[in-house]
Amino acid sequence: MITTSSELQAMRRVGRLAARTLALIGTKLAVGVSTGDIDRWVREDTAKHGAKPSQLGYHGFPASVCTSVNEVVCHGIPRDDVRLAAGDIINVDITSDLNGWHGDTSATFCIGEVSPEAKHLVETTRLALEAGIAQVRPGAHLGDIGHAIQALAEKAGCGVVTDFGGHGIGRKMHLPPHVSHVGRRGDGMVLREGMTFTIEPMLTLGAPETRVLDDEWTCVTVDGKWSAQFEHTVLVTRRGHEVLTKPGV
Ligand code: MF3
Ligand code: CO
Ligand code: CO
Hints:
Layout: H1 5-28, H2 35-48, E1 52-53, E2 66-69, E3 72-74, E4 89-98, E5 101-110, H3 116-134, H4 142-155, E6 159-160, E7 166-168, E8 175-179, E9 196-199, E10 202-204, E11 210-212, E12 219-221, E13 227-229, E14 232-236, E15 241-243
Antiparallel strand pairs: 1-4, 2-4, 3-12, 4-5, 6-10, 7-8, 9-14, 10-13, 11-12, 14-15
Helix pairs in contact: 1-2, 3-4
């Protein structure tokens, strides 16, 4: 819960920082870039702005950013020997910690020409995040967000991952509540002005079931079909919402 103007300013600052780092990475992605390169760029840019990568060391996570390619749903670990190829899709998930406040945002990028199916998946996931965000206002229910995302995804023929969700965020990266990306209108917690949480739908071209690899982090689809994700950190305002990780501000 954000209650003072200095807290609001802190959340706006870190949200803008995470968004800018993500945009910077977006300009650098190309065929031949390794996910290890992305990790170094995130670490350097975050440090340059006096912040820390929230994910580094989080429950032992070994890197500063999650890089999730193709069938990887989330929590992909950057590696120097994983290089992007034309036709790949990659989610880059950045969480920054500025003065103890956290901002969390991710986007899925297409490398070169991708298949029409992959393009459809990425575009649908982007729209699903927007549909979820559009529900956010005081008095709305968490279930309204999940419902909007699920309805849009199902109409487009995409699966919605339910093994992970959005989360409250502020002085910690992960706080209650759990923000499900499926749901029913009118179900769940009532939103109030000052709440900050993420919405971060993961959609799939096949079934939404996931499993975690032996590295204990990398989460992939069970059927090997591709997955995309977009994420924003959102504040409930008096009249609706403010996206704290909006690109280009
Ligand atoms: N940024 C991720 C999220 O959206 C957190 C990943 S936790 C990590 O919630 F440890 F894998 F980095
Ligand atoms: Co998140
Ligand atoms: Co994230």
